[in-house]
Write a structure and sequence with these properties.
Order of helices and strands: HHHHEHEEEEE
Low-confidence stretches: none
GO molecular function: dynein intermediate chain binding; dynein light intermediate chain binding
Structural class: mainly alpha
Protein name: Dynein heavy chain 2, axonemal
Number of strands: 6
Radius of gyration: 20 Å
Number of helices: 5
InterPro entries: DHC, Dynein_C, Dynein_C_barrel
Largest sheet: 2 strands, parallel
Shape: globular
Strand order of the largest sheet: 1-2
GO cellular component, one term: dynein complex
Helix content: 40-55%
Pfam families: Dynein_C
């Protein structure tokens, strides 16, 4: 099953985002494969090593993410971390497609256009209620449940995971911001809904 099949079966804003994201990531993955194949061909002598290919090779050797790969989502991460991050992003959409339904918890940082997810939530809320867009107010709650215990979607809205806190921690007992643990500048936040 492909993303377009899911959209045709159940046309909704979230499945439209799935189609858009898979298109974007397919373009990125094709670009990565093409540039690596060109580099390999240049190294073994099948094609001439151009200046552009030489610069690309030097970036890879320095473990930097090439500029042409950063068009979808810019990063300051080194190449290895970027590849791991890309794998997680692609896995999120692959699982969505293979199961045919949106995940219960969306990894918001894994979207190239996270605002589209929030807009889809607004559209779905409007569609399922008598509320006008101008009357909607964003309301969010940090889940008291451990992420592994969240198995069903909320009655209204979505669960979002993967947000980070910088310079702060989260007190699970009292559900409030707390001082960061010593030597931890960034901590994982609980899921939101």
């Amino acid at each position: 099953m492909a993303a377009l099949d899911i959209l045709n079966e159940k046309p909704d804003p979230y499945n439209e985002i799935l189609v858009q994201e898979t298109r974007r990531y397919n373009i990125l993955l094709n670009s990565v494969m093409q540039s690596l194949n060109e580099l390999e061909a240049g190294i073994v002598g099948k094609i001439l090593m151009t200046e552009k290919l030489q610069e690309f090779s030097e970036m890879i050797m320095k473990m930097e993410v090439p500029a042409q790969w950063q068009k979808l989502y810019p990063t300051l991460k080194p190449l290895g971390s970027w590849i791991n991050d890309l794998r997680l992003r692609v896995d999120q959409f692959t699982k969505w497609i293979s199961k045919g339904v949106m995940p219960v918890k969306l990894w918001l940082p894994g979207f190239s256009a996270p605002r589209s997810v929030l807009n889809a939530t607004l559209q779905t809320t409007i569609k399922n209620s008598d509320v006008m867009l101008t009357e909607l107010i964003w309301e969010y709650h940090v889940s008291a449940l451990d992420e592994s215990h969240i198995t069903e979607p909320p009655a209204e809205g979505i669960y979002i995971r993967g947000l980070l806190l910088e310079g702060a921690g989260w007190d699970k007992t009292n559900s409030i911001l707390a001082e960061a643990e010593p030597l931890y500048l960034i901590t994982q936040c609980q899921s939101f809904f």
